[in-house]
Sequence to fold (479 residues):
Amino acid sequence: MKTNLLQSTLLVTIFSLIACHHQPAPESTSIQRPNILFIAVDDLRPELNCYGKTQIQSPNLDRLASEGFLFERAYCNVPVCGASRASILTGLRPTPDRFLDYKTRVADEAPDVITLPQHFKQNGYETFSYGKIFHHRNDRSESWTDTPWHPQMDTPGGGSWRDYQVPAHIEMDNDDSPLRGPAYEYASVTDTTYFDGKIAERALRKLGQLSQDTSPFFMALGFLKPHLPFNAPQKYWDLYPTDSISLAGFRDYPAEAPVQSHHSFGELRHYNNMPQAGAVPDSTAKQLIRGYYACVTYVDAMIGRVLEGLKANGMDQNTIVILWGDHGWSLGDHGLWCKHSTFNVAMQTPLLLRVPGKKGGQRIKALTEFIDVYPSLVELSGLPLPGHLQGNSFVGLLDDPAGKGKDALFCRWKKSDAIKTDRYLYTEWFDAEEKSVARMLYDHQNDPDETINIAEKEENKALVASLSQRLRQQRQLDR
Fold:
């Protein structure tokens, strides 16, 4: 009898220990994953107050920088929207055969790669896409909890992605015309009339709903301005009188630059009121710059509304906010417009990051490239790293903002490859047989505006050879 009692007691003890072992941890000890607010701004160059530029009023982005980290030297890996977005969302570099232009579809060019939002979704996050994230709204749609939303979906008849509000411009912008509507528009409308206002409204509604949810979220907001056409409410244009606008500081083509580095900014020439050949007249250039500035201030205001909504819903203390422009943009610099080049102005972008618990107002000087964003957000969220990533996490720089970081980064556009080091930007063009056909080198320490190509100077022969070798090595790695 005593033996049976002892055996029973022992069995009860064992089962109790097993039950305790398998019991879930108390709620207070569970890991709380941070939310991610992932903000893309189309064609945004780092011409903001927080970057030391005073032309544009950007109070909300400046505030975000003061509360977090500003990356002084962040670069896209390819200076065109579709390919740049594909690269940042997959963590993969563009190659001579992948992620080449604005038409890039990840579903076609990297169909089996786990995308950034998909990785978060697979790790318990609700994921949402509002506006322009992937270039094509239905590209890799399995990355999202809900169907990706774009304000054009709510426009009667579908409307035009160019989002004109002036009736004459709407009539002008039709598929039967070889040209689009005008390159800019200012209309006496409310902030929520244009698409970016609608994106902010959608985000605010969703944030209100998510504030009652316990699941972490990854919300991607793709604001459309300052992409052409430069359409914004009249009040933002009024902030920039024409006589206050200055033209680009260096508007000549760089001395000794190869012909391959030039382009005809065809993107701009597709618009009705733009010259179809030759230089843009100064009066037109001032209106374009004015429109670009107005659009940046407009989108800054819309982003500010979202950030205030995040705070009002009590989620700012557990939400990582990252903001990036998909590439730079030329506003008459080097006599060029738009992107589509390996000049610094087309590749350098804003990158702002706010992380709960991290000291704000920090500036990171280290070279950073967009393929670093994916591993960094994954590390900050405590998730496992996928094995395909080609970038390096910059999380270590958050605790050491003066840290060195990378010694070089790489960009690619069409038949050219570029390497950016601490001091130099070197580009080389290749033909179909992989032979070098042109090159250019700029010394950013002594020539930040890139006015003279010094690649052919005898004193730079060894430097050019070294940079060329690194480019070729990277080119082979990327194939």
